[in-house]
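agent: user wants the structure for Haloacid dehalogenase-like hydrolase domain-containing 5 from Erithacus rubecula. delegating to structure tool.
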Amino acid sequence: MALRGSLRAGRALLRAPGPPCRGLCSRPPGFGFLLDVDGVLVRGSQPLPAARRAFQRLADGGGRLRVPVVFLTNAGNCLPSAKAQELSRALQLQVSPEQVILSHSPLQLFRQFHQRCVLVDGQGPVEENARNLGFKHVVTIEALRKAYPLLDMVDLSRRPKELPPPTTGFPTIEGVVLFGEPVRWETSLQLITDVLLSNGSPGAELQDVPYPHLPVLACNMDLLWMAEAKMPRLGHGTFLLCLESIYKKVTGRELKYEALIGKPSPVTYRYAQHLIQQQAEKQGWKTPIQHLYAVGDNPMSDIYGANLYNNYLKSARQKQVQAGLKRSPQAACAQAELSLELGHDCSSPVESCLSILVCTGVYQHSSGVPKETAQTVFHGHRDFCFDPSLLEPSYVVQDVDHAVQLAFQKENWS
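agent: tool returned. relaying tokens verbatim.
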């Protein structure tokens, strides 16, 4: 990736004087921000100083945002209200749940699955999250394990000491929703595999393996993410890689997804655009939102996703649905339904989604990663094509404060 060139371009733009902006507070914004959280605004539970400086620019004297902002994170182990409270404390600004997009937030639009009995996996309030998203019949991994204790056999301390009585009345599972990486990977990998191989009845004796298998909807494809540790941590993308490998090794067939949600999926960016436009309308800003600025620290999810969506915007304006995904017919259908749900058409005023990479998280400008390595080692999900150009950000800046300054200058809001 030509990251060094992008960094020089970002610095040059920040140094270059822009034309004077008259009537700054009275001119409605024609742009909005999609801000990643981990590695951009916070590191673990600690806010980054640049984040508070950025929001001093974004907010007026009364603490109200002058530009529409959504917080676009692949986290999914909490409720949107809890994440909003966390961000409010970190940024010293009132953040509403309507501004927060967790990895699973767009699942509320997949209503064709809401009446099915689904197995949900992840951390935090997974059952509450699922019900808030619209799922009516929810089974957790823990409930499944308790119903069928003989299935979870890796941890010797959790094996039943006596043969349990047969389980009766447990519902047949009709789909699997993966919110994020679980705590006990071995339990989740085993039980999810059991559900897929048994067509939703893991207590029954295994017969012919069904294929296609039950619908699987997965959120958060990040192989790595950044917390307080000096090195990136394994994320849900790593868990998905394990599940895919196990399923293929056991069956000889590919695990298929009905939907992949969270960055870098265009579904998530389309949903973020929808919320940006809603914010502008709520504020009474009449100027159409034409430009989105996506700020992130991870080239493999934040930058790839923003660039992928930028391509989607271009092709959508040409009445083509081609975003670089190797999609199945089912996935294409889900994407089309989502666009219809959000009222998407080729007359949308949004023209571009520019990607801005910061150096405060996964990507470190001084890391010395060889250029050829960055171009050949793809950390993205297997169902997304590897196009090195999608990993190249529009701009590289030091931190989110510089990213906001850069966008203001490009929009003549300096």
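agent: one observation worth passing along. The longest helix spans residues 299-317.
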